[in-house]
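Lab meeting tomorrow. Look over both lines:
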Amino acid sequence: MTSIALAALEKGDMMETAIIIRRAKKGDLEKIVENWKGLYEHHNKFEDIAYKRKANSTNLYRRYLKKQMSTSKAAIFVATKGQYMVGHIMVRLNMLPPIFVYNKEGYVDEIFVRQGFRGKGVGTRLLGFAKKWAQKKRLDWFGLTCHVKNKKALRVYRNFGLRGFQFKLVRKL
């Protein structure tokens, strides 16, 4: 997608079409990679050290995506408007230690919505598809992590029904 077309799309200057949420296909791979780059640019606003990428991170991510697309233990859903991908979500099975009664979690690895589409319900709809996937898999929990400075995303997640459960503390070594 050209930057001009994307800018027009995000401003709403293009023909009104519905945003469709669907399961990702192999042909979506490169568009998801482009979204991922935007995701990490967004995260770097909050924390530049924790999200520092390796030199070959794009190829590593591409390989990771292919693996997640080919397993029954993960799902990727995309939000499209016409031919453009405006967001995506990746959810996977995360097993907690077997000592817990409820030890199967549907964990959202990442969720991204392009700037011009935030605040329009796209993220909430993506979360709904990921949650439904987790329910079909008969998982016990549904959750994600979010940077504490990402107030808008935290509001979306809380409105979706997620609640604070743990507080992760970190220190660079």
